[in-house]
Each structure stands twice: as structure tokens, then as C-alpha cells.
Amino acid sequence: MAETIALIDYGAGNLHSVHNALIATGAAGVVVTADPDVVAAADRIVLPGVGAFGACRDALAGIDGMIAAMEQRVRQNAVPFLGICVGMQLLADKGIEFGEHRGLGWIGGTVQAIAAPSPDIKIPHMGWNDVTPTAGHDLLEAGEAYYLHGYHFDAANTDDIFATTHHGMPLVSAVGRDNIVGVQFHPEKSQAYGLQFLERFLKWKP
Question: Quick check: is 100 catalytic?
Fold first, then answer.
């Protein structure tokens, strides 16, 4: 029986592309859902995200019972979880974008604007760039992926950083802990590298 992979629909993610990428890896049980009960029973959970931190957080919190279902399934039942782009940023304690907004608080840190170290460094960080693993992790391999973000995850604990990239300065590319991983890059736009990453996530047994 195929695993159920809950792709959370809260009106703030690149759902169509992420769904297609998961299907392209051979995943058979992908369910696009805004139903907390489906999330509470899923074998794996994917949280995409595009847009401003606060708007995404409000949209997720606006689905009655969704954050509680995620907390139960991910934090208590320890099913594998993947956050993508703003979905990764929401793992932080807070985000500072058009004000200060509370995150999920699963990975300690603050999401804040990328401060370009020189005028020739373009913000947002957009396009292909390196993924450089900082320590051995089953999901992260060295390669190139597609990024699009003007805010970055400033992790409180360097042990939670799984990979970095460089855009005039080091930026966090992936964070995680235990059964939780989040990536700043877009696997669904990262061609072979992204599909291989998703394949590893679907086989991951943290």
C-alpha cells in the first residue's frame, strides 16, 4: 500500500509544480489537502510556501486545526516532514518581514532580510547556486539548485544547519532536526538535482 504524502494546501505554495515533481519521482500517494485530519494520518508531510512570512503564517493558522495536526503528526509521531522555501522559513521562531511574526518554533532561529555586503550583490537571491552540505545528512548532497528569496534563515544553533550556499555571504540552504528538514531552494524547479532530493526524502527513514 502506497504511503500517504500530505502536500499542505494553505493558499501560499507552488502546489502544482511541487505535486508534479513528487509524481515525477514515482510517488503514488500524494494528496493535496487543506484537511487537518488527512495531515494527522499522513505518512509524510510536505509544506511548500511562496510569498511573505507573515501572510503564509496567517494562512496556515487560518485553517482550523491544521497547526495542531502538524504538531501532533510531526513533533509527536515523528513522521518525515519537508518544508520548502517559506515552508522552511516557517520552522523558525519568528520572521521579520513587514513586522514581526511568530513562526512554528520547530527550529530555533529568525528569518530576516538578506543584507547585501556590497552593491553588486543582487537581492533577492535568484537563480541557480550551490548547495554545500555542512555535515553528513541522508538527504543533502552537494550540487546546484534553484533559489528565489530575499529573506534568509538565521539559525540559533549551527547544528541545525544541514547545508549552505553563497551569495556574497554564506546563506542557509537547509535546516533540520530529527525527522524535520527544510530547504530554502526549490526542488521542484531544480531539475535533476531537485528530483533526486525528493526521491531521497520519499525513502528517508529518520
Answer: no
Decide if 85 is catalytic. yes
Q: Which of 97, 152, 167, 188 is catalytic?
A: 188
pLDDT digits (tens, 9 = 90+) for 100-139: 999 999 999 999 999 988 889 999 999 999 999 998 889 9
Determine the distance from the C-alpha atom of residue 35 to the mean position of all C-alpha atoms in its chain, rounded to a whole number. 20
Q: Is 188 a catalytic residue?
A: yes
Alpha-carbon torsion, ordered 139, 14, 150, 60, to 10 deg: -90
- Which of 19, 85, 101, 149 is labelled catalytic? 85
Start-end of H helices in the chain:
15-24, 36-41, 53-61, 66-70, 86-89, 191-203
- Give this prediction's pTM: 0.97
- pLDDT tens digit string along 37-59? 999 999 999 999 999 999 999 99
- With beta carbons less than 8 A apart as the criterion, state whether 35 and 64 touch: no
pLDDT at residue 1 tops 70: no
